[in-house]
């Protein structure tokens, strides 16, 4: 997870109080070799755990034998 500032034209953004950033969070799922399997961008005010769960649900990670959490 990575919190970053958003551009002024972005439609939605939130505030990450832990990092004091107003913007978005990027969740990236990688394998043991570092290859990217899923990317999800959410508002920064959503908790890290909730964002990771939402990404896994949207990308069907953990629902097949291909992925383990």
Question: What's this, in brief?
Answer:
It is built from 1 helix and 4 strands; from the N terminus they run ββββα. The chain is an alpha+beta fold.
What does this 3D model show about the protein?
By secondary structure, this protein is an alpha+beta fold. It has one domain. It contains one helix and four strands, in the order E-E-E-E-H. It has one helix at 48-58, and strands spanning 2-5, 14-16, 21-30, 36-43. Strands 1, 2, 3 and 4 form a four-stranded antiparallel beta sheet that branches. Strand 2 (14-16) and strand 3 (21-30) form a beta hairpin. The longest helix has 11 residues, at 48-58. It is elongated. The chain starts with a strand and ends in an 11-residue tail after the last helix. The relative contact order is 0.21. The mean pLDDT is 74.
Write the layout of secondary structure elements.
Elements: E1 2-5, E2 14-16, E3 21-30, E4 36-43, H1 48-58
Antiparallel strand pairs: 1-3, 2-3, 3-4
Q: What is the overall number of helices? A: 1
Unreliable runs, pLDDT <50, ≥5 residues?
Answer: none
> How many domains in all?
1
The beta-strand count equals 4
Beta-strand portion reads 35-45%
Strand and helix order? EEEEH
Content-based structural category: alpha+beta
Main β sheet profile: 4 strands, antiparallel
């Amino acid at each position: 997870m990575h919190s970053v500032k958003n551009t002024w034209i972005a439609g939605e953004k939130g505030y990450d109080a832990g990092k004091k950033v107003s913007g978005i969070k990027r969740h990236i799922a990688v394998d043991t070799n570092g290859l990217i399997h899923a990317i999800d961008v959410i508002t920064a005010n959503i908790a890290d755990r909730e964002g990771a769960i939402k990404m896994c649900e949207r990308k069907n990670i953990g629902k097949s034998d291909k992925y383990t959490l």
